[in-house]
Amino acid sequence: MVLDLYTDWISQPCRAVSMLLMDNNIEHQVHEIGIMKGETKSAAYKQINPSGKVPSIVDDGFHLGESHTIMRYLCESRNLPDHYYPKDLKQRAKVDYWLDWHHLNLRHGSLRLIGANVFGPIRQFSEQKIEELRKEGNDVLKSSLTFMDENLSKNNYIAGGNQLSIADIALVCEVVMLPISGASYDDYPNVQAWVKRLSTEIKSWDQANATLNKFLASKKK
Ligand SMILES: N[C@@H](CCC(=O)N[C@@H](CS)C(=O)NCC(=O)O)C(=O)O
């Protein structure tokens, strides 16, 4: 049975799951769920994923959300090449470390800035709320990108090793989203080099990022 993917192409975790699926030729059916249209909160979608978030998959009747969990599940269930999620316990722990770190650091900062600069004006947040979100977002992003940059000065891939892992995929999808809220990673040369490296190594890079790139180009006009 073909795996079903529920996704919105603009979303960071959705693009990460798509990259893993596409680069490994895992047959799947894409169901687009528009976040801005409120489709993640529809009763029909909540039957698929009760948390009302994308991405989620249905694999032969098995429902699963959370991008990191989905990627781990795909690595194991499809026996993907070891570098994505190594069998070696210590190497695997390093990948898990960066996946866990992601949510309360890089993604936390990124979401605060998206809240302040993208949703704030649309949803008419108070000036005070926007300022608080912006300050926290900028502070957390600065410390997160500094930490990543230091690590990437010693390693080509975020969890070490000689090839990319699912931690690289999760984090890079967040980093390339930063310009959407006016943030950038221009001051972090090792992060920049890593993004460039991954953009050539992830075969589905252009396809997975097409909607985001179109949106970013339209903002520049
Ligand atoms: N921790 C989750 C985060 C999922 C998430 O926050 N998805 C956002 C899009 S990036 C979403 O579905 N937002 C829609 C909503 O909250 O209604 C994951 O990694 O999959």
UniProtKB/TrEMBL annotation:
One GO cellular component term: cytoplasm
GST N-terminal domain ranges (all copies): 1-82
InterPro entries: Glutathione-S-Trfase_C-like, Glutathione-S-Trfase_C_sf, Glutathione_S-Trfase, Glutathione_S-Trfase_N, GST_C, GST_Theta, Thioredoxin-like_sf
Alphabetized UniProt keyword annotations: Cytoplasm
Chain segments annotated as coiled-coil in the UniProt record: none
Subcellular location per the Swiss-Prot or TrEMBL entry: Cytoplasm
GO molecular function: glutathione transferase activity
Keyword Endoplasmic reticulum included in the entry's annotation: no
Domain spans labelled GST C-terminal: 88-221
Main location class: cytoplasm
BP GO terms, sorted: glutathione metabolic process
Statement: the UniProt record of this protein carries the keyword Cytoplasm: yes
Alphabetical list of PANTHER family matching this protein: GH16740P-RELATED, PTHR43917
Protein name: Glutathione S-transferase
Organism, as annotated: Adineta steineri
